[in-house]
Write a structure and sequence with these properties.
The complex is a heterodimer of chains A (110) and B (117). Chain A is an all-beta fold. Chain A is 0% helix and 50% strand. In chain A, strand 6 and strand 7 form a beta hairpin. Classes of the chains: A mainly beta (110), B mainly beta (117).
Amino acid sequence: DIVLTQSPVLAVSLGQRATISCRASQSVSISSINLMHWYQQKPGQQPKLLIYRASNLASGIPARFSGSGSGTDFTLTIDPVQADDIAAYYCQQSRESPDTFGAGTKLELK
Amino acid sequence: QVQLQQSGAELAKPGSSVKISCKASGYTFTSYYISWIKQTTGQGLEYIGYINTGSGGTNYNEKFKGKATLTVDKSSSTAFMQLSSLTPDDSAVYYCARGPLDYFDYWGQGVMVTVSS
C-alpha cells in the first residue's frame, strides 16, 4: 500500500500562512493528473473535502485554501489562517488500490 | 442538497455482527458509488471498500475481506455494511462517503461501533 506521511502538528498564528505537507511513498501522479486529495476534520464531525486532484478547490470551500504538488510531494496551504480553520487535515491518494490516507496534521494556534 | 444519513451507534459483543446503514438523498443514488471508511485513534482513516449502487458490485480492501460485507437497497437509496465476527479491534467510527470519484465528496456523520463484553 502507498504510505502517506504527514507531520502530526503544525502551530500557526491567526492571519498567518499555514503550509501542510504530505509525502507519498511512491508517485501518485498519472501523466498530468495528481491523485492526491485533502480533507478537513473538526472534532466530532465527519471529514470534509477541501481539495481534489492536488489543486482543485471543492465546492463551497473558501479561496484561502489551495493545494499544490505532484509526484510524491504535496502541499495544502491556508492563507490567511482563520479561527475556524483549527482542525485536523488529512491527505488521501487514489493512485493505487487501496486508497490510503495520511495520519493527519493537527493545526493548532501558537 | 446531498446528504448521507447513517444509523445510530452500536454496542456489540465480541463474536457478533452489526449492520449499519447509510441513506442517501439529494442526488440520483445509482449515479455514484458508496464507499466505507473506518476511523480509529490508533490507525487513523482506513478505506474498507465500495459498492456500485447501480449493479451491486463490490470492491474491498484486502484487509477487510471477510470482515465487511457491503450491500445496497436501491428502492430506499440506502447502502449497508455488515461487520462480522466482531473483536475489540473493530471498535471505531465508520463513515459512508459518496465516491470514489478518485475522492470522496460527501460523507455521512459516522457511526460509532463499540465492541465489548
